[in-house]
Amino acid sequence: MNNAILMSSGADNIDFMIHGIFSYEIFGHTVWITTSHVCILIVLLLMLGLAIAANRTMKHAKEIPEGFQNVLEIMVEKLDAMVYGTMGKVAAPKFVNYISTIFVFILMSNISGLFGLRPPTADYGTTLALGLITFALIHITQFKNLPPKQIWKDMCSPLPPWLPIWFPINLISEIAVPISLSLRMFANVLSGTVMMALVYGLLGKIAIIWPAALHVYFDLFSGAIQTYVFCMLTMTYISQNYETE
């Protein structure tokens, strides 16, 4: 596999940059397939494998769960509890599948550095796409559940709707949502990726065992925190567009 994809392939090959693997022409423009695309594909294939294994396990589910079935049920229960506890009984059933999917995808992407991959979430193109999807869901939900008068009132808040002085500021704050969501996760994951690349690059062959402690922090702890923060903010923004819970 390309050394730009695997970040731990040797002291002389440590690289945290995004590289093009191959390109093709489409409508007169050159489109590159990069290491980020390959890493995303690997994560998606792992998710697909997990989904197939889960489906087969649950088809032969036992009344008293054990092994992999027990792990699956715990995962589903915890994700359901997180979504229902944040979004309430009205909104949660509509978004629990989406939130659970992006939670698993982001978490697996963030911890992929443990296996030598460059985390897909260390590419701003990945996190921005996730932020834009959340942004679209926020406003689709808003227009479906709130009357136009309420939307206008919220955009003019805290002043009355007939005095829209705060409208430009509130509009900027709405536009900033996908940017802040994407930049927060991108910057945290990229900083961990750069730090680990520097550690392996500077220490070379002696960086064998003790960097595991850094992986625990940058990949597991920080990756899990960023996953939770992104999903919690997504649920909070969406659930604000429901008048009743």
From TrEMBL:
Pfam family, one: ATP-synt_A
Keywords tagged on the record: ATP synthesis, Cell membrane, CF(0), Hydrogen ion transport, Ion transport, Membrane, Transmembrane, Transmembrane helix, Transport
UniProt keyword Hydrolase present: no
GO CC annotation terms, alphabetical: plasma membrane; proton-transporting ATP synthase complex
Subcellular location: Cell membrane; Membrane
CDD domains in alphabetical order: ATP-synt_Fo_a_6
GO MF, one example: proton-transporting ATP synthase activity, rotational mechanism
Membrane-protein topology: Multi-pass membrane protein
Domain of life: Bacteria
Gene Ontology biological process terms from the UniProt entry: proton motive force-driven plasma membrane ATP synthesis
InterPro entries in UniProt: ATP_syn_F0_a_bact/chloroplast (IPR045082), ATP_synth_F0_asu (IPR000568), F0_ATP_A_sf (IPR035908)
Bilayer-crossing regions: 31-54, 95-115, 161-179, 185-204, 216-238
Assembly and binders: F-type ATPases have 2 components, CF(1) - the catalytic core - and CF(0) - the membrane proton channel. CF(1) has five subunits: alpha(3), beta(3), gamma(1), delta(1), epsilon(1). CF(0) has three main subunits: a(1), b(2) and c(9-12). The alpha and beta chains form an alternating ring which encloses part of the gamma chain. CF(1) is attached to CF(0) by a central stalk formed by the gamma and epsilon chains, while a peripheral stalk is formed by the delta and b chains.
Function noted in UniProt: Key component of the proton channel; it plays a direct role in the translocation of protons across the membrane.
Similarity comment text for this entry: Belongs to the ATPase A chain family.
Name the UniProt record assigns to this protein: ATP synthase subunit a
Lineage, top ranks: Bacteria, Bacillati, Bacillota, Clostridia, Lachnospirales
